[in-house]
Each structure stands twice: as structure tokens, then as C-alpha cells.
Amino acid sequence: MAKLEEYIPIVGQSVVDDLRRLAEKLKGKRVQHVNSTPVGGGVAEILNRMVPLLRELGVDTRWDVIKGGEQFFGVTKKFHNALHGRGEEVTSRDFDIFMDTSAQNIKEVDTSGDIVFIHDPQPIALIKKKTDNKWLWRCHIDVSEPNQKVWKFLMNFILKYDSAVFSAPSFSQRLPIRQFLISPSIDPLSDKNKDLPQEKVDEVLVKYGIPKDKPIITQISRFDRLKDPLGVIQTFLQVRRYVDCRLILAGGTASDDPEGIQVIEEVQEKAKQNKDIHILLMQQNDIEINALQRASTVIMQKSIKEGFGLTVAEALWKGKPVVASNVGGIPLQVKHKYSGLLCHSIEGAAFAVKQLLNSPEYARKLGENGRENIRNNFLLTRHLREYMLLFLSLFHGEDVIYL
Ligand code: UDP
To answer: Quick one: 235 and 154 in the same domain?
Structure first.
């Protein structure tokens, strides 16, 4: 794994020096992240790199994952969809299932860290164990229009936290606790994002039987309805009437998402008999995803709702032109006609993809601007800095910080 020193050529010496200075102030504090899955999805992606780097900086950091069965994750997926505004029938039995599994985790998960950093709703009830330590609730979801029943239920827990963290200003809520706005990030040196030799890119295409004979449009995502994989296929079919091209839909499922298998079946059904559509079922294989992104002519992210969309940042970092929905955290990354194209419909997406395929120079410029936007705003070093400042702010008033 890349060491802190290796980030200097990308972000500059002063950024890394700053991180060391902040970490020094956190000496003696134990930070504990808790989420619900070790792989799959953006939260795990970030923690996999953030935790080792915090440790390298000398911040005593651990990462725990709560346990839950199919029923529990069925309920939390319903919460997830409902918070994203999708109509869901959430029943009192669902709340009971949530509380039963939470009670088990409350017994089993050690939460003795000085700072307990809880990610998303699944582990939210652990707050019942709060003593005099500091607790943060990090919401990665677009909660700009949450289902009120679920949000009210979660509020019972949120109120007990010291602070909450959201990804974008539009997600912030009226809360009686302090709120911070911190956007996610990608790691430029991880296997997912580091430079790859062309031979590696070609090798992955050969492995999956994808010829390089025509432009490739790609969406990398968990198979989740909110990522609109069927909409991507419809977009492709519209583009395909005018420009010969291929489509790659690549992704896996997450252990906390029981809907994935069903969505994969729907997608396979829709794509069958079209030899230009490649459905790649892959679990965590960062180098291969990196290679597929690099092999692509245009990258799509046609989400219906999106907390942030790390896949957009990953594509832009590789200088790829992106067509993405104007939802959630995506417009933070894509400024329309400057660092990508935003869309609101299948027709709009198809128009944008066609435009990029027909104007390679314009597409190149958008990708280049996108990469600079990611360098300036969405790399892990900025994220680490903001998290450490947040940690320090929790102790404001105590004699621990002298910035
Ligand atoms: N990802 C992956 N394998 C897959 C699908 C997605 O490694 O099969 C990664 C993807 O590259 C990105 C993250 O998982 O780093 C997804 O984060 P994002 O914010 O785009 O969406 P989420 O899944 O958290 O809703």
C-alpha cells in the first residue's frame, strides 16, 4: 500500500506536512470507525485506505463491522431506499427486526474509543452505548428528501450524537446537534486508481472477451436499482442507433444489500442476445475495475439517487469524459459542460454520450478539467485533513488542541 510520502508528487509537500501536524495533535486519542460491510460500496472503499493512512500518521485507529442476518440487511436496505426518497412500506415489524439485531451488536461491539465514528444508518443504534466519549454519525446517503417515518425513527438516535457529517450542503437537515459538510474522496494511489500500463488494460479486456474494435461506454456500479442499470442499457440502445459502440456494465453486490441478485437477473434478461452489451459480474477486483475504466471511451453514472458517487471521481481522475445524472453528490464533481455532462433522462443521457463519441477533442477537454477538479477537491489527503480537524473540534474547550 502506498505510503504518505508517495502522495507528495500528487498533492504537494505542504499538504502532507499539514496532515502530520494535525495527527500530532491527536496523539493519545483512539478513533474507531464502525460500518456494516468490509467490502462493496463506497464506505468500505474509503475506509480501506483511510484507516491505514491514519495509522501511518500515528492516529490510533480501528475499524469494526457490525453483524446482521438477511432480515436485518433487508430492513436496512429498505431504510436506505426510503431515505433516498423511494416509496417503501416500512412496517413496525421492520423496526423491531432492526432493534433486535442492534441489541445484539450493542452487546458485541466494543465502543470504547475516544471518538466513535458511525457510518450510515445500519450501526446507528450503537449510540446507546455512549459514555463520556465522542460520537459522530456520518451519513453517506442523499437525505435531502427522506421518508419521514424512517427519518423520525433515526432521529431518536441521531440526537444523541455529538455531531453529524453529511456529504453535500443540500443533504443537511435541521438538527439540534452540530453538522459538518465533508465530501468523500478517492485514493489516487490505490489499486483502483493508480496508473496502469496499457498491457494490463488490454489483458483485462481479453480476459472478459471485450474486443477493442469500437468505442466502449461503461458504468461501474453495484447492481442496485438506484444506479439505474436498465436505464443505462436503454441509453446505450438509443446511442447504438447512430454510433457503433459497446456497453460494459460491471459490478457486484455488497453483503449488506440483499436486492443485488434480483437486479442482476433483470439486467441479464434485458441484455441478452445483444453481443455488444457485456455484463461483468465481479466482486472487489480493483485492478480490473481500474483497467475497465481506463479502457472506456465514455463513463456513465446514471444513478437515480446518489450520495456522492465515487465511481464518478474515479472516472474523472483517469481523465475520462463522464455522463452522469444531476443528482445527489454528482454535481459537486461534474460541472455541466466543463468537467463532464449532466443528464436528467435517458434521452438526455443518450444525446450527451453521442456528443462525446462524435467530438473526441471536446470529450478529452472535459476529462482533463474533471481530473483537475478531483485533484483539487476530492483526493484522500483533503478528506483526511478534514476528518482530523473534525476530530480535534470535538475536544474544543478541553485542553487538548492548540492549532
Ligand atoms: N465498486 C467495486 N466493485 C463493484 C462495484 C463498485 O469495487 O463491483 C466500487 C466502485 O469502484 C466505487 C465504490 O465501489 O469505488 C462504489 O462507490 P459509489 O460511491 O460509487 O457507490 P455506492 O456503492 O457507495 O452507492
So the answer is: no
